[in-house]
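Can't paste images in this forum, so I'm doing it all in text. The chain is below; anyone willing to post the predicted structure tokens underneath?
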Amino acid sequence: MRRWIILFFLLFVILNPSHAEENTIVSSNQNLTPPAEMYSALEGIIEEIYDEFAVIGSENQVSAKSLQDTGISGDEANSVLLAKISNITHGNSSLIVSPENIITAAAPAGYEDLIGTDLSHQPETRFANEKKEPVISNLFYLEEGFYGISVSYPVFSKEDEYLGYTDVTIRPEELIRTVISPFMEDTGYEVMIVQTDGMIIYDEDEIEIGKNTLTDPVYDTSEMKSSSETLLENETGVISQYTFWDKNWRKQVSRQAIWDTLFLDNQEWRVVIIRNLEADGEELNVTLEDN
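Text version of the structure:
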């Protein structure tokens, strides 16, 4: 389905150039058209990430149903979580959190000492309990001891009483790196994934994860601010050219980016494909115009 949605978007942009300009920062060099393989890579990466989260969501749903019989605490509940996490390649841990924001079960064994911890101080925990539906958190510092994302699912009794939620915690850099590696090796492109508030969920350079494209000093230039705002305000788009550091932070180079949005439960993530615009070691010096 995603393939046809993206194909339709590309045809729409081609046939409606005035629409494309609304979501694009273009350069004075009109030959800087992103190659077709950038769009192919973007489509493939989005599909792969979606599939990974579909597995997590399915396993969460199965475990929530099992917890109707076991309850949300005790050895049987821990066993349900352990079975779930063993079926998820990139899952780090799984918790059950009560409506009062207390951890009642945890897996694998290394996380069982978290049982009894009060997570009321975490907005992400309170949000999941308030929503009582599948939720994917923003990137935040997890009680497990790392920056990550909680993918949660509500637990209801057979009498439809809300019992809390169960989750799977992931490190985006682990899951997404596995997904994008084949595309990176084939094309040499870079991938960045950003929340709509500017928080970077994934970047090839892990030091960038957790930074905000709107507020971090490294992005504090008029060009980068304009690029970031365009990215965050539009679900799809192209930045024909901008200047930023290369992936090794050796020098600033001319770059190009395209993006689309991955919709997951309550989240909208901008998935960005980036390529350098250097030929034979010579940078392309083109002035940006924001249409």
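The longest strand covers residues 252-264. Residues 27 and 287 are 6 Å apart (CA to CA).
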